[in-house]
Amino acid sequence: MSHDEFLLTQLDALAEQLGIIVRHENVLMEESSGAGGLCRLDGKDVIFIHAKTTAKEKVAIMVKALREYDLSDIYVRPAVRELLDQSEEQ
Of residues 55 and 26, which shows the higher confidence score? Predict the structure, then answer.
């Protein structure tokens, strides 16, 4: 398992803990403006990720989406917390 794949599993677990649905879908790129992101669907938070993106791109999508949530009271593995904090500064 690569580092990015490991981070992706950790981010998926964090999203699940927050009650966010993560869907890896085949998206018709000509009908989409990006490789994925956070949206609200039927009253639930959902992160859509284009299934054919790289693990690194999936991590970036997850990080961007999860930064929208208050994670101060939730245990987040240090490597993942660092990634979320780094992204905030950029």
Answer: 55
DSSP symbol at 35: S
> What is the number of domains present in the chain?
1
Q: Which tokens is 33 given? A: 């403006």
Q: Which long-range contacts (CB under 8 A, 24 or more apart) does 63-72 make?
A: 63/11, 63/87, 64/37, 64/38, 65/15, 65/20, 65/37, 65/38, 66/11, 66/14, 66/15, 66/18, 66/20, 68/38, 69/18, 69/20, 71/14
Q: Report the CATH number that the domain containing residue 58 is assigned in CATH.
A: 3.30.2010
Q: By residue range, what is the domain housing residue 65?
A: 3-89
Question: Which pLDDT belongs to residue 51?
Answer: 87
Model confidence at 34: pLDDT above 90: no
Summarised one tens digit per residue, pLDDT across range 40-51 is 999 999 999 988
